[in-house]
Structures are given as structure tokens and as C-alpha cells.
Amino acid sequence: MRIAIISDAWRPQINGVVRTIETVAQLLGAQGHDVEVFGPDRFHTLPCPTYPEIRLSLFPSARLAHMLKAFAPDAIHLVTEGPLGWAARAFCRKRGIPFTTAYHTRFPEYVHARIRLPISWSYAFVRRFHAPSSGVLVVAQTIRDELAARGFRNLVPWSRGVDITAFMPRVEDRHPGERPIWLYAGRVAIEKNIRAFLDLDLPGTKWVMGGGPQLAELKRHYLKQQDKGIQFFGSVGTEELSRRYAQADCFVFPSRTDTFGLVMVEALASGLPVAGYPVPGPVDIVTVPGVGAIDEDLRAACLAAVTGDPAACRRHAENFTWERCAAQFLAALQPIPRGIWQPLKRRVVPDAAAS
């Protein structure tokens, strides 16, 4: 099967969306499917105004149309509600081509956190994007329930996985710093609510792994206080991230706006219990005894979670497999009748360098 995946989130970004697309594409490719990702790297782009690490494709419609005609996929999947997602949606709608979409990000909550736009306005925008989709792939049951209540239709379960060979307990690599070590890993941005973690009165050391638009601000604020109990590491590779997970004592997930939080499963695979709020993501992952705690009092959740069982964490993480994730994705795709492509001229257009 020839599968076209259109995503505004793509390399060199490092986040759960990109990791999911990459892994699913690799697994399906290994099964013999021809998977092509159409990301911003193929278009002229400009930086997102409030998040320059994200590149937004500039007027991609015509070029994307040429690319899709040349590729002539058997199925099309739209990952994001950005410029490329909307361009692909328009292409498919104009030609009566079925497609699937995914709800990866609580976009309305993110926008509200940044510019205070009413959440209802953003949900109307996002609901319109997904309305013609043959299947809206959603990772967590809590998010599916929430979207259904807001009028979304054709919601399809789509699980996530973890590389249990990359993320694992490493008892021999214990860190000598003041313990407990409380770790946050992920994008450093306002919607992640990282200040709620850093302001907690907790014993030991706090680590922040990851980059993002709020990193410089948080470093200025907290390092100015000469708080030696807080360390910022910036963006790191998988090897160092895995090592830091294994060295820490508790993973703290302060976000209230995520759909899932893949980093929590990576932490569990490393034998690291999770603390978070009782919101989508933590309530979908911290579901068995010994793997963490959730509480509206985040400090209480941390102090309860840190006593968790590393072995239980690892066992629980092993239930999240990328193979299942890829199988669900493949099953949800809507086949495109081959006759649709016959009248369309197949002309290969070279990729434009991203600006």
C-alpha cells in the first residue's frame, strides 16, 4: 500500500508527534508498505510567531497537489491542523478523496494558554478541520470522550508505544546528586505548566530536560535565585535522555493540556514512577498500582509516586507497543479508489529547500 502522511510537525522537531510518525512509518515500511511523509522540509517556510522552532509551510497548496498526484497514494492521512494539513484537506475535498486525520494536540488549550483566545472558538476551528475525516485517530479514551461531547465524530482509538530497548532501568548508572531527583522531560513551553513543578517545595534535585520557547525565561528566573536544586539540560538525544530517566527517582508531568504524554511511558520503561494531575494523559497511563500517583495537589502526587515500584513501572510500560500502534493506524486508513488518480497527470516535482 502507498501511504501519504501529511504533517506540519516533522524533523528536525523532536516531540511525541514526530516520534510517532517516524516509528509508524518505519514499521509499515518494514512490512512492505510505501510510506511517504510530506512535511515542512519540502516547502518554503517561516517560523511560527510564538514558537520559532516550529516552521510553517508558506502557501503549500499547489506544490503539495503536484506531489500527491505524482505519488498517487492508496491512502492519505493528515496529522496536524496546520498549513499543510489544511492544504491536504482542501486537495482531498475537491477531488472526493477519502482521508483520515489525527488529534495529537489539544490545540484550543494551547492557543488559550498563549493568547487567551476563547477555547470554544478554537474548538469550532478544529472540529471543522476533522469533520470530513473518515476516521479521527485519538490516543486516549478521556480525550475521545471529551471530543465526542464537543461534537466530533468518527473517533478511532490509536494507542502509542515505547522502545523498551532504548529506555530501560540502569541500576549501575546511579547519579551522585542530592536525592530524590525529580525529572521533567519534554517541550519547554508555557502550555506544559513547568512552573507548577519548579515551584514545588520538594526535597532533593529537580531536572528539566528539553528545549522550547520558555527555556530561556525559566533559566533566567530560577537560576537567578541561585537555586542549586534546579538544573536545565536543554534538548538531548535519546541516549542521554534514557540515561537521565534511569538516574532519576520520579518523573513529574505537570501539563494539564496534553492528549497523552509519550514521555511518561518512556519514564515507566526506565523504571521511573510518574506523578501528575488527574487529567487526560496521566489518568490514561497511571492506571495500575505501583507506577505513580495523580492528585490535584501535585506535591502530594510527587511524594506518593516516588515510593513506586520500578519493576511494576517497567512491566506496565511493556504493554505499550509500537507494533499495536502501527496496526491500528493501518486498519483505520481509508482506501482511495485507483480510478481517482488515472486522469491526473503524474509529474515529479523536486523538493524545495526549507527556508
Describe the protein's architecture and organization.
The protein has 355 residues and is an alpha/beta fold. It has two domains: 178 residues, Rossmann fold; 147 residues, Glycogen Phosphorylase B (Rossmann fold). The chain contains 14 helices and 14 strands. Strands 2-1-5-6-7-8 form a six-stranded parallel sheet, with helices on both faces. The chain has a six-stranded parallel sheet with strand order 11-10-9-12-13-14, sandwiched between helices. A two-stranded antiparallel ribbon has the order 3-4. The longest helix has 15 residues. It is globular. 43% of the residues are buried. The model has no long low-confidence stretch (mean pLDDT 91).
Please give a handful of descriptors for the protein shown.
355 residues; alpha/beta; Rossmann fold; 6-stranded parallel sheet; 14 helices; 14 strands; globular
